[in-house]
């Protein structure tokens, strides 16, 4: 009896858990898990001609979700009494397919009305510009072991590019190597690509003689700084642009910005901050939430699309500097940012 109890505890401890459900396209859903899943986790049963049930060996901790699409199809997800997750797929006069890659399961319904005709354009692929801060002669924040911020953020940006491409986004990088690009050219590049989102990645730092040694992930959107902390972070990231525009002309420019774009950028920042924290806290302890903040970051000022600047951690903090230089941590950061983008896109487009 004791052996059976221990065995059940062991099975439960290693069971899959669903972390996120995101609808996309005209009639599709992506289910994300805390671990990779295989074919043995999914049992598919056909009920009638146009209805299927998927029993997934995973814990579903959320309230039931029901997605009804315009083409009369639907996908419902709920926790069953057997401990499994039950997914009901309805596809009248159509078909569906499932595929799984890594931690994600995609359920894609196709019908005559949802399939594009030869004269119809394909479903829009969202375009994201990923901007790795600094580069070239601009080291950025130097870590406690001397490592430049420019190398850390480039690695995270490359992992993010890879993660977003897996999720069928079109991705453009402002830099793919150790190249210096001024702030104005970064957003001009995004505008020229007609991007839907602009994501700038940085690592934070404070002077060595500071009485405090903060840490944490922070996500900023463009606005006048409303706190001393935000103002100081912005000053550090704006050094490239100081000679171009004095303080008062900058302030005047900020006040003239499109308020709707700033509101949308704020929503994007909230989703990305939540995505990063959720992903990191699955694997790492003591991840500090630095919050969503406003700041006059000039790398964001010229962007014509929703845009944010992410400070992935403090390169000046001994423990956090070590983390953000670690490959596995960088990959988790990239997945968290991608999860946040998914969430934002699903709710706003």
Summarize the structure.
It is built from nine helices and 16 strands. It is α/β, with parallel strands linked by helices and 349 residues long.
Describe what you observe in this structure:
This protein has 349 residues and is of the alpha/beta class. It folds into 2 domains: 15-111, no CATH class; 127-348, Zn-dependent exopeptidases (Aminopeptidase, 3-Layer(aba) Sandwich), CATH 3.40.630.40. It has 9 helices and 16 strands. It has helices at residues 2-13, 149-166, 183-192, 228-237, 247-255, 259-281, 298-301, 318-324, 327-348; strands at 16-24, 28-33, 42-46, 51-56, 58-59, 65-68, 74-79, 85-90, 94-101, 104-111, 127-132, 170-173, 197-204, 217-222, 289-295, 307-314. The strands form 3 sheets. It has a 6-stranded mixed β-sheet, sandwiched between helices. A 5-stranded mixed β-sheet has the order 5-1-2-10-9, covered by helices on one side. A 5-stranded antiparallel β-sheet has the order 3-4-8-7-6, with no helix packed on it. The longest helix is centred in the C-terminal third of the chain and has 23 residues, at 259-281. The chain starts with a helix and ends with a helix.
What percentage of the residues does DSSP assign to strands (E)? 25-35%
Under CATH, the topology of the largest domain can be stated as Aminopeptidase
What is the name of the CATH architecture of the largest domain? 3-Layer(aba) Sandwich
Roughly what is the average pLDDT, rounded to an integer? 82
What distance lies between the first and last C-alpha atoms, to the nearest angstrom?
A: 54 Å
* Count of strand segments: 16
* SSE pattern: HEEEEEEEEEEEHEHEEHHHEHEHH
> What would the principal axes of the Cα set say about the shape?
globular
Quickly give the structural class.
Answer: alpha/beta
Described by strand count, sense and barrel closure, the largest sheet is:
6 strands, mixed
- The domain tally reads 2
CATH class of the largest domain: Alpha Beta
| Strand arrangement in the largest pleated sheet | 12-11-13-16-14-15
Question: So, the CATH homologous superfamily of the largest domain?
Answer: Zn-dependent exopeptidases
Number of helices: 9
Q: Compute the gyration radius: what is it? A: 22 Å
Helical residues, percent: 25-40%
Please mark out the parts with pLDDT under 50 across 5 or more consecutive residues, or reply none: 1-13, 115-123, 241-249
């Amino acid at each position: 009896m004791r052996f059976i109890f221990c065995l059940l505890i062991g099975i439960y401890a290693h069971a899959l858990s669903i972390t996120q459900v995101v609808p996309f396209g005209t009639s599709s859903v992506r289910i994300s898990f805390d671990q990779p899943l295989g074919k043995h986790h999914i049992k598919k049963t056909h009920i009638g001609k146009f209805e299927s049930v998927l029993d997934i060996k995973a814990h579903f901790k959320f309230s039931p979700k029901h997605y009804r699409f315009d083409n009369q199809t639907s996908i419902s997800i709920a926790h069953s009494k057997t401990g499994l997750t039950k997914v009901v797929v309805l596809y009248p006069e159509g078909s569906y397919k499932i595929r799984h890659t890594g931690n994600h399961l995609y359920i894609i319904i196709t019908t005559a009305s949802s399939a594009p005709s030869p004269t119809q354009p394909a479903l829009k692929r969202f375009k994201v510009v990923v901007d790795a801060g600094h580069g070239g002669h601009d080291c950025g924040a130097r870590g406690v072991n001397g490592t430049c911020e420019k190398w850390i953020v480039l690695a995270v940006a490359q992992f993010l590019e890879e993660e977003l491409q897996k999720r069928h986004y079109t991705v453009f990088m402002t830099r793919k190597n150790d190249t210096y690009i001024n702030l104005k050219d970064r957003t001009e590049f995004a505008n020229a690509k007609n991007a839907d989102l602009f994501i700038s990645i940085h690592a934070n730092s404070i002077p060595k003689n500071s009485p405090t040694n903060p840490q944490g992930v922070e996500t900023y959107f463009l606005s006048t700084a409303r706190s001393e902390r935000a103002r100081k972070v912005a000053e550090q990231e704006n050094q490239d642009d100081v000679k171009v525009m004095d303080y008062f002309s900058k302030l005047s420019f900020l006040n003239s910005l499109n308020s709707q774009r700033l509101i949308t950028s704020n929503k994007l920042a909230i989703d990305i901050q939540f995505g990063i924290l959720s992903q990191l806290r699955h694997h790492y302890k003591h991840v500090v939430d630095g919050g969503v903040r406003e700041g006059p970051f000039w790398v964001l000022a010229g962007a014509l699309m929703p845009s944010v600047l992410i400070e992935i951690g403090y390169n000046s903090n001994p423990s956090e500097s070590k983390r953000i230089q670690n490959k596995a941590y960088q990959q988790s950061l990239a997945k968290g940012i991608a999860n946040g983008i998914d969430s934002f896109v699903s709710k706003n487009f």
